[in-house]
Amino acid sequence: MKHMNSEVKEERTSNKKRIDLFLVPIVLIAAFLNLFKIWTDEYANAYYTAAVKSMLQSFHNFFYASFDPGGYVTIDKPPVVFWIQTISAKIFGFHGWSIILPQALAGIGSVLLLYVLVKRTFGVWAGRFAALAMALTPIVPAVSRTNNIDSMLVFTLLVATWMLFRAVRTAKFGWVLAAFAMIGVAFNMKMLQAYMVLPAFYVFYVVATKITWKKKIAFLTTATALMLAVSVSWAVVVDSTSADKRPYMGSSQTNSVLELAFGYNGINRLTGNTSVTGSSHKQPAQTEQQTASSETKQNSNSSADSSQSSNQRKSSSSQKMQAPGGGNQNGMFNTGNPGPFRLFQKGLSDQISWLLPFVIFSIVGLFAGVKFKGPYTTKQKESLFWLAWLLPVAVFFSIAGFFHQYYLIMLAPPIAVFAGAGAVALWSMYKQRNSWKSWLLPGGILTTAALQVYIMSPYVSSIGVAPIAGVGALGVILALVLAVRKERKNSVTNYLGVAAMVVLLAMPAYWAMTPIIYGGNSMLPAAGPDSSSGMGGPPSAATNSKQSGFNGMQPPGSSSGNSSSNNQMQPPSGSSNGGQMPGGSSNNGQMQPSSGSSNSGQMQMPGGSSNNSQMPNSFSSKSSSSKRKSGGMNAEVNQKLLNYLTKNNTGEKYLFATTDSTSAAPYIIKTGKPVMAMGGFSGSDPILTVSKLKAMIKKGEVKYFYLSGMGKGGQSDVITWIKENSKEIPSSKWQSTSSSAQQGPSENGTLYEITLK
Measured between alpha carbons, how far is residue 71 from residues 337, 655, 690 in Å? Predict the structure, then answer.
């Protein structure tokens, strides 16, 4: 107890010391990477931005995180992060930057928290290196510059970690309760993903606390019960509320938060089984992987240069086409093939794995000589905590059936800790000239440099040969020189060690800046020279190195006159699979052009005709627009359509109804008026039935319906009924004829009107 009291006293004393001047530039780097130019992102992720617009309008929408102002359907995540975003928008006004700001600050906060967590046990230099490694991990700023949830989730889990460490140091049970309650809060940000750190919390508390086993079990049981209570608190309230008094729970199949948590946002992520069934017919609906097309339709910047048509892919109908931005990478969204080396595959390695070999060598060094039965030092206990965070999460991403690249931010804290603590530990071991552990530092530098060369090699057309050769050559030279100079102790050797760390952090630093240099993507954030495409993989050979996205494919309504007979893409025929494109056979995540295709730049979407869902233009990394609408092409609206709907609205609650959120979001953002996404996010939610729709029309709640080819899964009966009982509005009344009209539901769908007596 005396030891713990002295630690607390030491902590109070250290807090009174002046600011670490070395930390200041690290925080400034993090601030630059997370904040610079976020004001140019006008709409961010339009799906979530529309929800914030709706949540600003009433407490009902705010509490349930309603996607639309009418309270028809919620977004597909719990509300806590969106509550914070809404409060920010209330304070600073409704802007893209004000919605992104909380996540950007969370990214900076995570850097500071890691410094505090590591410095106390491993030393100030370990804290500095860890903070810098966290700031320069490419996926961290890529996610933090958007209104996606993950950076706020990681920050919250680091706060919980700080509470747990304090609980162990002070032997106060209240801090244990607070730590686990904070995980419950994190659950209400992104559900089961928050529980990925639980093994670390349990293992650390059991190993680090010096109390009886009876108390350990009692304390952990109580803390876990509190965590579960906090976790399901919002879900229980929502699920207990009558369905007619709240929005439908988006992306669930039973209108239940708990089903969403443990199904769509839970076990299905591991298994990859995200297929769902509709309410009317048991048919495969649009899976989340299949909504890649819907999402990427939102991801393109509307400032495309018409000259990009010269860079269109030229592929015959018999050739396989690569997934956008993905080279030959297998798996949707460039998440690779499941297996033990998945994190070293293209598409994932450049987001998170730059320092992994060094981390492995650091783990060996930090645990060298540890006996299973103990006793353990504080360094060993905390190293065990970070290892118990790193390994389960790494295993999950190595075997998971479905996830996005930006989820990898969950690996950033333990990797940064082992990079920082390991750098100091391996340097200390390096100076032990006669020990085998003295070889760990040169070995870690050499293997890490080799991996970084491997990571960069697919991007040679984008970044050139010089940085790849430079990292490889310097890494080899520094490792060899350090190995040779093991017997010498002087300042030159110290400088060589620092130089080695600079070399290993140089390319991660560049990659972390790519969302600023090349443009980011708020829907599917990823780092790299093609960061604006949202697909985060190396560019294909056909892709212009200065462009990103879906090279040369024309957006809906584009009439630039540039076309190619070979650019229409269709999913290959065959059985549906949760890990493939809609209707895709086992083609390793690639898309094939349809035989005999003739329409330029089109891609078949799930449940839709080919002319309804064209893929967006690729766009230049140097946007001519001062405001990026990276929420997507659909973050723009068809003004002529909006004028028509507004003029002919006779008191209906909804401006119009459409199949999914892609078409609805820009109009909600633009007008703040209710727009009904009949099938929720992807169009596959079984929310609406024909009888319900009839009742809504009779009550005068909706009369206009915009139908494209998107999202018929789960609502085919409704769409069929609409077409059979409606009047088609002539396109001349609402379609824009301007060649620059590349917006919203505008050019490729059909507008219907229904009035029932």
Answer: 40, 13, 19
563 φ/ψ sector (left φ>0, alpha ψ -120 to 50, else beta): beta
Look at residue 296 in the predicted model and tell me its pLDDT.
42
pLDDT in tens, 111-155: 999 999 999 999 999 999 999 999 999 999 999 999 999 999 999
Distance CA 746, CA 706 (A): 9
- Taking alpha carbons only, the member of 699, 614, 717, 694 closest to residue 650 is 699
676-677 and 727-728: which strand pairing? unpaired
Closest CA to 328 of 588, 568, 594: 588
The SS3 assignment for 672 reads coil
Alpha carbon 482 to its chain centroid, in Å, reads: 39
CA pair distance 398, 461, nearest whole angstrom = 29
User: Is residue 463 within 8 Å of 469, Cβ to Cβ?
Assistant: no
The pTM score is 0.82
What token pair was written down for 304?
């495309």
Long-range contact set of residues 176-181: C-beta below 8 Å, sequence gap at least 24: 176/205, 176/219, 176/220, 176/223, 177/222, 177/223, 177/226, 179/223, 180/223, 180/224, 180/226, 180/227, 181/223, 181/226, 181/227, 181/230
Rounded to an integer, what distance in angstroms lies between the CA atom of residue 232 and that of residue 574?
Answer: 40
Distance separating alpha carbons of residues 47 and 82, to the nearest angstrom: 12
Q: Which of 233-242, 669-678, 732-741 has the lowest mean pLDDT?
A: 732-741
| CA distance to 70, 245, 364, 702, per residue, from 699 (Å) | 15, 17, 69, 8
Q: Three-state secondary structure along 477-530?
A: HHHHHHHHHHHCCCHHHHHHHHHHHHHHHHHHHHHHHHHHHCCCCCCCCCCCCC
Please answer whether residues 521 and 630 qualify as being in contact, where contact means their C-beta atoms are separated by less than 8 angstroms.
yes
Report yes or no: 676 and 653 within 8 Å, Cβ to Cβ.
Answer: no
d(CA 291, CA 683): 9
Closest by CA position to 708, among listed 656, 755, 754: 656
233/261 Cα distance (integer angstroms):
13
Q: Pairing between strand 750-753 and 727-728?
A: antiparallel
Nearest residue to 359 via CA among 367, 369, 371, 351: 367
- Quick one: pLDDT band at residue 756, thresholds 50, 70, 90? confident
Residue located via tokens 């046990």:
121
Q: What is the pLDDT of residues 619-664, one digit of tens each?
A: 333 333 456 555 444 457 889 999 999 999 999 999 999 999 999 9
Nearest of 545, 550, 551, 518 to residue 311 by alpha carbon: 551
* Helix/strand/coil percent split, the chain, to 5: 55, 5, 40
**For the purposes of burial, counting CB atoms within 10 Å of the CB of 631, is it exposed (0-12), middle (13-18) or buried (19 or more)?**
buried
Q: What is the SS3 assignment for 39?
A: helix
Is the backbone of residue 191 left (phi > 0), alpha (psi -120 to 50) or beta? left
pLDDT at res. 266: 75
